[in-house]
Amino acid sequence: MLERQRLESATSPTRIVAVLPAFNEEKTIGKVILGAERYVDKIIVVDDGSSDFTAAIAKRLGAEVICHPKNLGKGAALKTGFDYVEKLDPKVVVTIDTDGQHDPDEIPKLTDPILKGDTDIAVGSRNFAKNVEMPLHRQIGNGMLNKLVNLFGKQKITDTQSGYRAYGKRAMQQIDVTTMGIGVDSEILMKAYGHDLKIKEIPVSCRYKGVEGSTYNPFKHALNVIAFIVRYASEKRPLLIFGLPGTISLGSGLLLLIQVLQSYSITRQFAIGTMLASMIAILAGVFAIFTAIILHTIANLIQKIK
To answer: Less CB within 10 Å around the terminal CB: N or C of the chain?
Structure first.
């Protein structure tokens, strides 16, 4: 199938490309490729430093394989894949995790809305599907991350951590991946919010029973996403992230200082502990406020240059 597709692509433009990030997925990569090849014109597997036969199996099945010399993270794998497919100029790029949780037969559900011009990004939402039995700890973790990611956009996505997605040309042109780890799915959505890209959620199924699932543990996943969100927010909303806490800290420090001075006027003794806490709060507040002003100024300058 893929051999025939490669011959056809020499004379016709590539419409749909699948980018499959993979790390030690020899048990499932074959099934994902065989399932996806029926709906896409080209499959790119980015082997992220696997120590098993993931790359060999993908090559044997006819996929084009790009190998990282060591494990760099899902974000790095997606960036490598996105950079590579740029020269192919496809109409749609599909991403699907290779752990076997998602059904490749649902690819048309994601690509069709983009081909019709209805949306820029189609997100395969597990929360909308009735047959999804997501473990409780994942439900809680994803719910918290959803709320954090959705702080940056008017549209509220119910499954911000889904890696089963399709991207149109406009999205591929405007979103630059910088996060190397598992936080990449959140990064893409937050940047899509910033560019006012159209996002549509599509119900998809997802298997959990009998599937090993993500190689990231949930706690590490959450920390990775939160770290990116803090960094991104610091760049986009420095007055909120640094200015507000700085103002609160400065105000608290001044109130403590007033309390110390009032106490001294009565007892003629300094409350050393309170005085020290006051100085620390004032210095931290001043530092945070100056940081907010500097970052805000830099952000404005960058925006003007653009």
So the answer is: C
